[in-house]
Amino acid sequence: MPAMTRKKLPIGIQTFAKIREADYYYVDKTGIAVDLADSGSHYFLSRPRRFGKSLFLDTLKELFEGNQPLFKGLAAVSRWDWAVKYPVLRISFGGGVLGSVQDLKESLHRLFGDQRHRCPCQVCFSHGGEARLDKVGFVDPESSFGVWVEMPS
């Protein structure tokens, strides 16, 4: 009887591509990802720390970017339209503490600016409404693509 090779556990790995390409153990949740994409528009993912939120979001990113080879043998491969690719902007605030609204604005401006190569949009700041909300985001009038984050001033 040939020796059975064991896959490695993906401890601390939060990228779907690395897990799939290096042949780590992976519990297939891609069917759930497709269900979420097909059935709604806004989700709040609340799970305990170290419980797979980052990996799941990275899986969604790979789906929307149309990275089909990573999904070989998984539930999503036959349920996703691989001909359609979407731009994905990944924004993380895990890199440090923001001490003020101004720090947050500057951080968002840098984050959106770093993504310009992926999506030909412009960064927009505006004030409006009685609550004096400061809005920052991308707007592309030709494709009607936009991302906005509202912050109290």
Description:
By secondary structure, the protein is of the alpha+beta class. The chain has 2 domains: 16-78, no CATH class; 101-152, no CATH class. Helices cover 27% and strands 15% of the residues. Strands 1-2-3 form a 3-stranded antiparallel beta sheet, with helices on one face. Strand 2 and strand 3 form a beta hairpin. The termini are far apart. 11% of the residues are buried.
Quick take:
The protein contains 4 helices and 3 strands. The chain is α+β, with helices and mostly antiparallel strands and 153 residues long.
Number of domains: 2
What is the structural class?
Answer: alpha+beta
The proportion of residues forming helix, as a percent range, comes to 25-40%
Reported for the largest beta sheet, the result is: 3 strands, antiparallel
Q: Record the strand order, biggest sheet.
A: 1-2-3
Number of contiguous helices: 4
- SSE pattern: HHHHEEE
